[in-house]
Amino acid sequence: MNRPLYSxxxxxSRNGHHLSGAERLSTAIELEPxxxxxxxxxxxxxxxxxxxxxxxxxxxxxxxxxxxxxxxxRTYLVDNYGQGRQAAAGLLCQAGVSPLAIDTAMAAMASGAxxxxxxxxxxxxxxxxxxRRLEPDQARGVRVSRMDLTEQARQELALGLxxxxxxxxxxxxALVLAGKVLTTPGIVAELCWSDDxxxxxxxxxxxxxxxxxxxxxxxxxxERGGRAFFLAxxxxxxxxxxxxxxxxxxxxxxxxQLNRPQPWVVQS
Length: 268
Prior knowledge:
Layout: E1 5-14, E2 17-26, H1 31-43, E3 52-60, E4 66-69, E5 73-77, H2 81-94, H3 99-111, E6 123-127, E7 147-149, H4 151-164, H5 169-182, E8 187-193, E9 202-206, E10 210-214, E11 226-231, H6 238-247, E12 250-254, E13 262-263
Parallel strand pairs: 4-12, 5-10, 5-13, 6-11, 7-12
Antiparallel strand pairs: 1-2, 1-3, 8-9, 8-11, 9-10
């Protein structure tokens, strides 16, 4: 690919609080329709119409882009969010996250991780052993940016997700974001559930397990959610880690294995 790509990012707010965001890497010819789609997304958000919409576009040099594969996707069916959180905690423990760090993350996400009790714009950074929060700004958190799919990978992913009944923006965008997080040196796992009130799903991601989705990780109607990135103990090179998450361009040119949903079996 010799033509330049552009990072296009949208951030929307309402009543002074973060409402919606979107990220793509695109060719110049795609910028205008993508920007229009992002504006419509912000204006039609389920939590209200955006009052402020910011679109940022920056050229990305081809030589800066890394090409990697998406993680495998699994879905475990759970009966309710309580069972979902227990299952998620079990997977995080297997990935090397301590019960204390898991409790810290889940309690913050459930009550609102920002100082005002709302969801953060970005992710928490949490020591995987001590549970200590490490992000420099606990209102903003850390954003993940400059990642996308190649066109061929996008088409393959859409077809694969359609066959599983999972081809929606929530799953596609979360899978791409989790994919970049898992390539970040020093991060051992991620926990996420949405702050959209009508979307109860969430996931755990780690290098060994891939992207593991649960249809219920929060109650229906709850607007608080967020992300937690768990950092390996003693490897807190925060400036380098944050710079990678926010600025390193990443394109996924291959998809991982897309597994059919299966019931969660309580681990003994």
